[in-house]
Specification:
Helices cover 42% and strands 20% of the residues. It has 90 residues and is an alpha+beta fold. Helix 1 (2-19) packs antiparallel against helix 2 (30-49). The model has no long low-confidence stretch (mean pLDDT 77).
Length: 90
C-alpha cells in the first residue's frame, strides 16, 4: 500500500509540474527552485517512509580456512632474526 501511495504521489507531482504555467524571467528563479525543493522533499519523504530503516538481523557464516595458507615465520639464521613466508597446510 505504501509503494502504491508513493507512486501516486510521484505521478501527481510530475503531472502538476507539467501542467503549471511556464516560468518567465520576470518572476525569477526562486519560485522554480522552491517548487523543485518542495516536490523533492515530498517524493523523498514518500520513498523513505516506504522502506524499513534496516533489513533485520543478518547472520553471516565465517568462511573456513583454506587448506593451505602463507604464514610469516620468524627464524634465527645464526647472525640475526629474520622473517620468511612459509606455506602451512591444515
Amino acid at each position: 500500500m505504501k509503494k502504491t501511495f508513493a507512486a501516486f504521489v510521484a505521478v501527481v507531482t510530475i503531472a502538476g509540474s507539467l501542467a503549471s504555467t511556464p516560468a518567465s524571467a520576470q518572476r525569477g528563479v526562486a519560485a522554480g527552485v522552491a517548487a523543485g525543493l518542495l516536490g523533492g522533499a515530498i517524493i523523498g519523504g514518500a520513498i523513505a517512509s516506504s522502506r524499513p530503516a534496516y533489513g533485520g538481523p543478518v547472520y553471516v557464516e565465517e568462511a573456513p580456512y583454506p587448506a593451505c595458507r602463507m604464514v610469516r615465520e620468524r627464524f634465527w639464521d645464526g647472525y640475526d632474526w629474520r622473517y620468511r613466508r612459509v606455506e602451512v597446510c591444515n
